[in-house]
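Lab notebook, bench 4. Still working through the backlog of constructs that have no structural model yet. Next entry is a single chain of 318 residues. Request: give me the structure tokens for it.
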Amino acid sequence: MRARGYLQAGAFVPEVVLDHPDVVSELHREFVHAGSDVVEAFTYYGHRQKLRVVGKEDILEPLNRQALSVAAEVARQTGTLLAGNVCNTNVYEPGSPAVPEVRAAFEEQVAWAAEAGADMIIAETFSWLGEALLALEVISSAGLPAVVTFAVHRDGTMRDGGSPEDACRQAEQAGASVVGLNCIRGPRTMLPLLERVRDAVSCEVAALPVPYRTTEAEPTMQACAIPAGAALRPSRPRSTPSLAPARKLGEFAAAALALGVRYLGVCCGAAPHHVRAVAETAGKVPPASRYSPDMSKHSFLGTDAGIVKTYQDYAAQL
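Model written out:
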């Protein structure tokens, strides 16, 4: 949504569900067209604490209900699952006075999702195990299945001090149906952690990397270096990683499937062609597969008999 001009970088509050619900609906449909089995209500950072930061706490309930309504309509029409969403609040700290407030925020969002008929709740992007378990407790109290995924930053540990695999193990023991990792790390740097998670738990495992070229030296999208000479300004996000090609997401999906991971997706920066690559690797043939790449037909690089040889020769010099 940010790349499309409907989401403000920095705040990342999904006001677009109120301002342009048709745009959100179309994006949901594009992801289903590309192979997604789940339509997730666009309520990430649509919680009370974040809306307070931007001075719009009054739109909290309308925003959440509208996001759920838009997602529910697409899910119903496409035969996919409807997921509610809760996420990191950025005010949680163990034992802080904010803990009851965080619980209350989860409770209201989960209640609205339950009323909308959500099939499950995705609790995502948690760096605090304690915050994730709080969200899980609220979801379980509502009688809904929970997918709980953790965001692992540069040091490779949770902010509570434990490992990602231990966090996933505790979430499974607390009742999560699916546990795993999302966001922050690209395919290359999420995979080693994913293997440890798969070995640590018995439930289904989720893997949703960002589609960026992270490396061992710069393992997260936030750690990616600013280009030489570029100024760091409040208006400029710190991370400026380059997108990985869709085939890299397909390669990641193949490796994850080999580990026994069955809940696959893509996080921040994802486009439908990334989802299509993952879906096709998993054996699906979504409608978007009709438009999957066929470079044999390329006017310069192709090998099809209809490609003019002088154009092939010219391309070899480029």
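Notes after review: Confidence is low (pLDDT under 50) at residues 232-238. The first helix runs from residue 16 to 19. Flag for follow-up if needed.
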